[in-house]
Structure formats: C-alpha cells, structure tokens
Write a structure and sequence with these properties.
heterodimer; A: alpha/beta; five-stranded mixed beta sheet; 40% helix; B: Translation Initiation Factor IF3; Ribonucleotide Reductase, subunit A; 3 domains; four-stranded mixed beta sheet
Amino acid sequence: MSNTIIMGAVAYDPKVVTIWDGFKAWFKERGLNFDYILYENYERQVESHFKGHYDVAWNSPLAWLQVKAIAEKLGRKAEAIAMRDTDCDLTSVIVVRADSEIQSVEDLRGTSIGVGAGDSPQATLIPLVHLAEAGLSPEEDLRVRRFDVLVGKHGDHIGGERDAAQALMQNEVDAACMIDGNHLLFGREGTLPSGATRIIAQTGTYDHCNFTILDDAPKPAVAQFRELLLSMSYDDPAVRPLLDLEGLKVWKEGRTDHYALLERAVARFKTIDGFVEDVASRCS
Amino acid sequence: MLLILGDLGLNEGAHLLLKRALAGVAVGDVVLVEGSAPELAVHLRGWCRAQGHEFVDEGGRLQVRRGSAQSGRWRGAERAGEATKVVEQANPTWGLAGRSATVEAGAPSFDFPLRVRDEVWAEEAARLYAQAAAAQWDPATAIPWDAPIEHPDEVEDAVVQVMTYLVENETAALIIPARFTAQIHPHFREVMQLLAIQVADEARHIEVFTRRALLRRPRLGLSTAGAQTSLKTLVDEPDFALSSFLLSVLGEGTFLSLLWFLHEFAPDPITSEVARMAAQDEARHVAFGLAHLTHHIQADPTLKERLAMAVHRRHDALAHSAGLNEEVFDALLLLAAGSWQPDDLRRGWQRIQKLESDMDEGRRKRLQRLGFASGDAAQLSSLHTRNFM
C-alpha cells in the first residue's frame, strides 16, 4: 500500500496551486499520495498542525519558531526536515538614498525607516533587531513605518518590501529594509535605479522557510516525502518549472541552527508570545 | 579563475562578466571575484542564491562556486529541425520556436493540427512569400482616388453592386486563411507567413472595394442569401486541403477572370485600378494553392478523389440556392455594355458569355495541372458554384 501525506501551506499567491498540483502529480508517479491544504495565514496553519489536520507544514521562518515554541510548551517535538537551497544564509540590508546624509546605523537616530509587513522576518523583524542590538530602539529612537502587505503571510509576498523601497525614493521615509537579493531585483525593475541608493547596514545571515513535522507525523510517509524532495533534480524537465516557480534549484536537508537572529527578534519584540500561549492552551 | 570587475556593479551589468567567467569553469570550481562596487558583496550573495551558485565571503575575499543548474537546464533539450529544411512531421513541443532553435525539455506542447509536411508544404512557398512581401501596395496611393467619375447614375449603381459582392467574397477569403494560419505548425513558417500576407492582401481588397463603392453613394448595395450560402460552404470547410482547393484554386482562380474583366470594362479608372491591383494579389493566392496541392497529391494520390468529392458535395449543398445573384449579374452586364443602347447591351451580353467561358477554361486548366484528366476537369469545372468564388 502506498504512503499518503498531507501538507499545509499558505496561499500567498495563486501560483501556489500550480506548484503543489505539479508536485502532487510528480509524487503520485513515484508512489506517494500527496495532498495539500491551503491556509490564508500562517497562524491558522500553525494551529491546525497541532490539531492534527495535516502531516507536514511548509512554514515561514516565523511559523517555524511559532511551532517550535508551542511544541516546547506542550512537551512535543518539532523537526525541520527539508528546505530550499535559497532558504539558506540570507541577509537583509538597510538602504538609504545615495544623497542622504545618513552614513551609518547611528545616523538613523531620529529618522524614519520603512519596513515590510509587521510579521515579515526579512523586511521587518530581522532588520529591526539588527538596529536594536546596535543601540537603536524601534519607535523610541527612530520612527518605524510598516508597509503591511498581506499580514499573516509573514512577508512571503514581496509587496511590502517594494512599497517600502518606493516610499524611500519618494522621500516618505529615510531608509528602507529588504533582502539582499531584492536590492538587486529592485534595481533591475527600476524601483531603485542603480546608483540611487546606498546600503548602510547588512544583517547577519539567517535561514528562511522549512518543511516542519511534529512528533506524531507518519514516519514512512514523511521519510518517502523527504527522500523524494531531496531527489528532485533541476535537470528533470518535469519538475524544473515547478522549482523555478517555488524559487529553488535543489531541496536540501532541513537545519534549524540558523534561526538565531529571528529568535532574538521575536524575543525582544514579543512578536509571537501571545499567539504561542493561546494555541498552546487550546491544544493542550 | 580570477574575475576583475573594477567598479562595475551587478546592478550595472557585471552579471554578464560573471556568467561568462562561470561558463569557463567546471561545475564545482571557483571564480574569485574582485571589484570595488560598494554593493558587490551584498549583490553577489543574492545573485548566487537565485542562480544556484555557492557564495563564499572569506573576510572580503569573494568567491563563487559554480552550481549545476545552468548546465542542467539544457540537458535533454531538442533542436527544432534544421534552419533550411523542413521535417516530415513537426514536433508539438517545438511550439513557437523557430526552425533550428534549441528547445528546452519540458516546454509546453502546442496543438497545431497541421503539422505534417505534405499536408501544407510547397517548395515554392518561400519564393511566393518573398514575392508577396515585395508586392505589398498602399491603398492610399496605389489607386487614383481623385480620377473623374463621369458615367450615368445607373452605371454607378451597378459599380456599387459589384463592389458589394466583391467585399463579401473577399471577407470569406480573409477569414479562411486567417483560421488556417493559426493551425499550421510554425515549423512550416514560409507557409504561415504566406497565408498571413494573403490575409493582409484581402484586408486591402476589402478596403479598396468598400472605398470605391462609397465614393458616390452613402451605403453599399444588396447582399443576397444565395451568395452568402455559397460562401458559407467555404467558410465551414474544416479541411485545409479541401478548403484551399475550393477557395484558392477554384474560387480565387475564377475570380481572377472576373477581376481582369472588371479592369478591362470598368466605366472609370478607379474601378479599373482596384480590380487590377486585387487581381495581381489573387494570382499569388492561386499559385500557392496549386503548388501545395500538387505537392500533397504527389505524396498522397488519393487526395485527388477527395478533392473531386468536395466539388460534388459543395454542388449538392448549393443545388437549391440561387447561385450568382441577379443583381450582380445585371450589374456586370450593364458595366460590360457601358450604356442602355440595345447594341451595347448585346455586346455586353457577349462579353459576359466570354467571361464565363474564360472562367471555365481557367478552372479546367488548373484542374488538369493538378492531374485531373481533361474530361474530369471539364465536369468538375461545370459543377463549380455559380457564385464564382
């Protein structure tokens, strides 16, 4: 009898259906019955995981920390089993206009900074903890303007970063935050013309999404799912368009030792505490 | 390998140099990148992640280890035939790619129903296309729109009626190749291009016939059920070979005689010229129809029988329709006569008879060129629609 596995994922874009339908067919040909449930936001997805509605979650880094914290409270174990090559070793940058007088993080004191959605690790939480650890407390030492595109999606949608970058160019804010690669992308698409901005700070490296399981996940199905993921090759024309859509070249084994920066951010800003308490009490 | 970028940034085009350098090393090998662009390290990190290369920053020493994605992308790619030769059957997954392009594996399959060479191809297609492209004319300048119109009102009415008839025929002749253009596999691009120009030709014909009709009148003349019924049998024909036989060889072939007739007997230089310009284009349409059907019959001699049946079928379908409408016939007669004088009308009548016999002779010749015996050709020609097209 073939294994069955159900995945939870957040529908941050219509292409999500194309991606998982495509993978579903590919898994099916290899003897794994794969199905998926789409959630509107990560919080619903995380809670549903603890309610046993599915077996494996495609989690944002913030959702991973939420799951980990809830699991600890409930005496359960969460594990990251796989991630994209592009989820590893990201950095975020803080950008000012090229002609700005701001030369360093310290110069940001008293200015305004544009960030992404409030729950975006890359465009909000990590850049702000970078500043906080450098001695600049958000809201106290500088004004934070949030570009809340699709809250609940944990910044999966690039819109918030782009809005912040546009606000920077329109002099609405003095600085903006974004992933390193998006600074290059915004240059190419004209949002930030080359030479028009200057990077004044770069955060440490951090990891992004992962496939998360809890300790009650069906072991043979999870093992097969993970093995198939890791066997996907960019050379294979059947999966290549799906890998392109999902933004990776190869799936890698999951690792959880590169979320420290985000953990410090959520601890400092108490981003997930209330949610973790609520879900833990509902699911205990 | 060492790549020196100077002060050129990845947001200014340096990625091209980087790609070129990486193409020169094996997968897994390292390119050391040196440069003074202020954002180089940040951008290199993001670029490598997106491209599937490994980025290493050893205390400011920037290195890129080549990943396997780019070489993997083209594994299993297929060449879409050769640039100057067509294949017997074009592959649906070549899609819209030009002949001889390298097509990535996994490209979508396109449903082009006409992808067998012998069903569409003619060696003459490229030459006819070049000829057609060179012979395009501008309706605004090619026709002497300001030339005098001095004939009586009733003759002008006859001109308008003939133009009305031509417009609906040319509309059919536009729609039909337009539909088949979208069905032909782009591998046979010369045929696709030729049909596209044919469509553009008909667009111009519709324009000049309409404009001529409206020079002295506020509206077009009469459109009859019989004429439209005849044209509908052409529009409804789904088979490319049968359609181009009925439309190009028999219909447009017959029209050639009509257009030259109008050129000769038109009562004014404008009408004469629109007919002449259209006739020149139509001759190419007929030539291509004959060329590819000749090719098709050589590959599949049973096609001839199907062509003959198509003529019979169309004749039967139209047996209860009126054929050429009386209004058009009378208008042609008046044009050919040039006046209401009995002697002129008799001469006009004789000219119409000569026109019909020319049409028949032309059809028989073309049928014989396709390999029909002269008796069969004569019989098939006699069954052709009385609506001419």
